[in-house]
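Supplementary Methods. Inverse-folding protocol.

Structures were first reduced to a discrete structure-token string of length 276. This string, shown here, constituted the complete conditioning input.
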């Protein structure tokens, strides 16, 4: 995968739910507390105003409201812009989000200061400091959560659903972790997946190459193993392997899938070695 193709790989969109709302709120207020406690970027209460801490906390609230406005409202108004979400689109979008949130904080700060230092340089300074603070606080919160809970978490979730688009425009929303494997059959693909503990199959009018372009990326468990197959490596193990061939088996089922020689080395690195 070259650097340019990485920009076109699918990327999960955050869901609009209570968990993400809580996460955004926690980051916003934690940034305010971080400023009050550590005084980064030379931020000081030089005149000892009694309301200084309240102003800093209110900027955390502005951050939360600005982020929710741009991240949740715009996708509802212009949903087509967010179809087939990719790494490249995410990079452009979140750069815009930072600039928008920075603009709201800059306007709020300028209003409180009587519009002194109301310049483009100050705007970009506020936006840059906002980005640095959010990244710093986010990683600190993640580290703290992992230490307290003992669970490993990531800023990028592989549990998000992907919206697959067929050649005829039909769509299918599916979570990559639920997919067992995908088999190509001429102009159609059979998608084998799990719903709870129940195994299901759906016929989808699409080429395997089209599905691969929408599912395979750096955080996805889906990998190509054969010209006719995509597999979820979490559901397979190596059944047999020689210097010339390899076959993999679906865990919990008496099914075997071939592995082409061109994909054998990559698949061998991803799956546990055969027993015995």
């Amino acid at each position: 995968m070259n650097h340019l193709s990485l920009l076109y790989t699918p990327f999960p969109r955050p869901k609009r739910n209570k968990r993400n709302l809580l996460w955004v709120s926690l980051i916003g207020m934690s940034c305010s507390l971080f400023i009050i406690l550590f005084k980064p970027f030379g931020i000081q209460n030089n005149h000892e105003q009694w309301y200084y801490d309240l102003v800093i906390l209110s900027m955390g609230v502005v951050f939360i409201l600005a982020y929710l406005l741009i991240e949740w409202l715009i996708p509802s108004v212009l949903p087509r812009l967010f179809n087939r979400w990719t790494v490249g689109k995410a990079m452009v979008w979140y750069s815009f989000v930072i600039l928008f949130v920075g603009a709201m904080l800059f306007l709020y700060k300028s209003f409180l200061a009587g519009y002194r230092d109301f310049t483009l340089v100050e705007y970009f300074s506020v936006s840059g400091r906002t980005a640095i603070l959010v990244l710093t606080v986010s990683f600190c919160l993640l580290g703290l959560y992992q230490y307290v809970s003992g669970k490993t978490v990531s800023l990028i979730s592989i549990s998000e659903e992907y919206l697959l688009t067929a050649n005829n425009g039909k769509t299918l929303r599916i979570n990559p972790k639920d997919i067992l494997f995908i088999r190509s059959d001429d102009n159609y693909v059979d998608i084998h997946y799990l719903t709870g503990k129940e195994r299901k199959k759906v016929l989808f009018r699409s080429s395997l190459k089209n599905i691969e372009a929408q599912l395979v990326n750096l955080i996805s468990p889906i990998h190509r193993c054969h010209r006719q197959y995509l597999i979820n490596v979490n559901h397979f193990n190596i059944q047999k392997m020689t210097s010339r061939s390899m076959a993999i088996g679906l865990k919990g089922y008496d099914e075997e899938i071939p592995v082409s020689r061109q994909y054998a080395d990559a698949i061998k690195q991803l799956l546990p070695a055969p027993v015995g």
